[in-house]
Amino acid sequence: MPMLLQIYCSGESTNSFHRYIYVFMCPNNACQKTCNSDNFRVLRCQLPRQNDFYGFERMLNFEQDGEVDDPLFDAEKYAKLCNVCGALGTKMCARCRCTWYCTKDHQVIDWKEGHKQCCQEGKVIPKPEDKDRFCAEKENSFLFEELGVELDLEEEREDTNSDEEDDDEIEDEKMRQELLKKAQNLMTKYDPKNEMNDLNECEESERDEKYFKFSKVLKRNCYQILRYNRGGEPLLATDHANAPSDVPPCGNCGSKRRFEFQLMPYLLSLIDIDDISSKVDYATVLIYTCSKDCDIKDFGYSEEFAFKQDFIFTGQEEQNYVDENDEN
């Protein structure tokens, strides 16, 4: 799985002062299943405030724009990172002797994705320490596009657009009522016995309240790729798909997990897989992490929980979906 997203989100304890969450996603169409998150993996990695790799202060600085150089950056260590995933590289390309890989599998991926041609044609391959570490140029087709995340407070945007949104909501409701009235008039005309006089009740019962709220947020924040609200409530995308009612406990310490952030649909369009022929899609992906930020053995990685919610049809299509899941 290539990495879809990583975010730095400092924990609440001294042992999780420096903390990263990594989200991986399989882009293979065969792995995409409705309301099933098996094609996602979430990993947590953290370090205490006093460590050999990061500074004593938090890395985030809301007053500084752009990338910030790491004061502890070591070019010698950086030169031995995997050219595919960025993990510590232990295997070197025998031909060019300047490209490193963490495993033979990633060496094969990079070989097929263009490194073979560079080596065979004798092209000068820049050493990793000579590359621009903040360059978003895509190394190979196995990876997603590399982009930065800009931070913003959603509350500020809610205040500036409140009057405009109220007007839009009034107009939407007026249009909905007009369409409903026309439909009722047509049914009265072609249904003399008025056997379908429960149209209004039916329409109201099937109204997807969570979707209307979700779409309202999307309209207001159309370029939003994630919503961060640790310990808060997620913004569910629809009433017609299951909500996360039984989030499994932390597999590392057994503590309860809590909601941390969710991925929004616009992210798919940024990584060039939001295509009509592709089945890679989601309404939202909810990420839950250990509530205690438990220590991880050897400062490694602990797997967390992802819940994918999709937009699904109501009626016969929804029934087919339920029946299929019952069989599985």
UniProtKB/TrEMBL annotation:
Superkingdom of the source species: Eukaryota
Alphabetic keyword roster: Metal-binding, Zinc, Zinc-finger
Stretches assigned to the MYND-type domain: 82-119
GO cellular component assignments: cytoplasm; nucleus
Region forming the signal peptide: none
SUPFAM superfamilies (alphabetical): HIT/MYND zinc finger-like
Keyword Ribonucleoprotein: no
Record region (Disordered): 153-172
GO MF annotation, one: zinc ion binding
Keyword Zinc-finger recorded: yes
Name of the protein described by the UniProt record: MYND-type domain-containing protein
